[in-house]
Design a protein that fits this description.
Layout: H1 3-24, H2 39-50, H3 53-66, H4 70-95, H5 102-107, H6 110-144, H7 151-166, H8 170-199, H9 204-213, H10 231-247, H11 250-256, H12 262-297, H13 306-311, H14 318-351, H15 358-379, H16 387-411, E1 415-416, H17 421-442, H18 452-466, E2 468-469
Antiparallel strand pairs: 1-2
């Protein structure tokens, strides 16, 4: 598989993607406020946004150390989507907001509004950069290094593509291109499994049987509460991750708000969680197949490097490598494009308070693209962990205060001292960091996992309670 073959594939895919984005712009604005997208398409598009390049590479790679325990987290995801569908979606539609963080303004005040928006901005910027970094790293190995081109050029080109196809189309363009991305990614995974089965001399049913009999196919871990993969840690961590990272994430909710009404949006949420769980299960099964193939052929790579190593190995046809690149690109541009659009909307509406200015929005969009590129370059010098784990660790600290703010606003009718909210929002994750760094020593060997996010949210709520008073009447519209 030569770099030129990959460049030809990328060019063909980008031509198709830009054409889809161009057609989808008709009858829509950047913010997706006209609500014309059918809910099944929104559900499919959410696969393209959630299943990033990190998911595409890291989920198969993680089965070597975590087996299929990630499905425990996915069960929590499903519960979280139910909470979003029946708890948050009706609220957002009733308030008729462009940005979901406008709720915090109506409930608490402008300082709380901007605090939530800034935490989202930081989390989304870092999370998008982690995801894009992994994709750029693989493209560097397959294309840019063989052509003696620098990593910085790689990053700039990738971000320029994201900026170009989302620049005018906005939310609606992202939704339609993500449908294309989701279909291409799933097709790439299935075709890779077919070729691996053939290379191992197995039929697909026989490969499925081999996967199910592998020690790496273990799903449930109930035996040690101190272990990071203990079932209830993973389940409740997944639940709160989805409520925070999806239900209180402008990136994800801008899709839900693009449905015709909240009933359609609820259907989108429920279908989306079923589809996403199915795709993750497929990726985990692919991971076991990749390890089986690597062990049979002497490939030593593990973790995030496993899938690219197997896909480009001499024992498989070059077509498998092209499928891998296609799946990587579609997943990367899907999540990256939606993240860039969400950053633009949130910064324009929430922080600058200029949602109606198209000139400002375009300038912010370019600035957000530049910020993502710079952050990717910075992260390239710092990364030392599994990429998907890094994304969720970032989310645990930045989405915790957001989750705490929304939960306190919805569940309580007390008024807070708006100007002091940033202090609470910073103090809660700082306390969580101290607890996580010292948990083994202080709590008899206990290790925090994704449950640090709900703990972060609870500490935020406790701080808000201490700084609040009884409202003495109606709190706010939607509060």
């Amino acid at each position: 598989m030569t770099p030129y073959a990959i460049i030809a594939l990328i060019s063909a895919y980008l031509a198709l993607m830009f054409n889809v984005a161009r057609l989808s712009r008709r009858g829509s604005d950047f913010f997706g406020s006209r609500k014309k997208t059918p809910w099944p398409l929104v559900a499919i598009s959410m696969i393209g946004a959630v299943m990033s390049g990190v998911t595409f590479v890291s989920v198969p790679g993680m089965v070597g150390t975590s087996a299929m325990g990630y499905l425990q987290t996915c069960l929590g995801f499903m519960a979280g989507y139910v909470v979003i569908a029946f708890g948050l979606i009706p609220l957002y539609y009733r308030l008729q907001v462009l940005s979901i963080y406008q709720y915090l303004d109506r409930r608490f005040g402008v300082t709380s509004h901007r605090t939530g928006a800034w935490f989202f901005f930081i989390s989304k910027l870092l999370g998008a950069s982690v995801r894009l970094y992994l994709v750029c790293l693989i493209l560097q190995m397959l294309v840019f290094d063989p052509l003696d081109l620098p990593f910085a050029l790689n990053v700039v080109l990738c971000v320029a593509v994201l900026c170009a196809y989302t620049f005018r189309g906005g939310v609606r363009a992202v939704i339609w291109t993500d449908v294309l991305n989701a279909v291409c990614m799933v097709a790439a995974v299935i075709l890779t499994l077919v070729f691996i089965a053939k290379a191992l001399g197995l039929s697909l049913p026989a490969l499925t049987d081999a996967i199910s009999k592998s020690e790496m196919s273990r799903i449930f871990f109930f035996d040690d509460i101190r272990h990071p993969q203990f079932f209830w840690k993973q389940f409740f961590g997944g639940l709160f991750i989805v409520v925070g990272m999806t239900g209180m994430d402008q990136d994800m909710m801008q899709r839900a708000l693009n449905c015709r009404d909240f009933r359609s949006s609820q259907k989108n949420m429920l279908l989306s969680t079923v589809l996403q769980t199915a795709v993750i299960a497929l990726l985990l099964g692919l991971g076991v197949a990749l390890y089986l193939y690597a062990d049979a052929t002497g490939i030593a790579e593990r973790g995030d490097r496993l899938y690219p190593a197997v896909a480009t190995s001499a024992g498989l046809p070059a077509t498998v490598g092209l499928f891998f690149v296609l799946g990587l690109l579609t997943s990367a541009f899907g999540s990256g494009g939606s993240a860039l659009t969400a950053l633009t909307i949130s910064f324009t509406v929430d922080i600058l308070d200029k949602g109606g200015s198209d000139r400002t929005r375009k300038a912010v969009h370019i600035a957000m693209a530049a910020a993502v590129a710079l952050t990717v370059l910075l992260f390239s010098a710092l990364n030392s962990t599994s990429a998907i784990d890094a994304v969720f660790k970032i989310a645990s600290y930045t989405y915790g205060p957001i989750l705490g703010l929304f939960a306190f606003g919805i569940l309580c009718k007390r008024r807070v001292r708006d100007r002091l909210v940033p202090i609470i929002a910073i103090a809660a994750p700082a306390i969580c960091l101290v607890l996580q760094l010292n948990s083994k020593e202080w709590f008899g060997g206990y290790t925090f996992s994704y449950e640090i996010l709900p703990l972060n949210a609870l500490l935020t709520m406790a701080g808000l309670w201490l700084l609040s008073r009884n409202s003495g009447g109606e709190v706010c519209q939607g509060g």
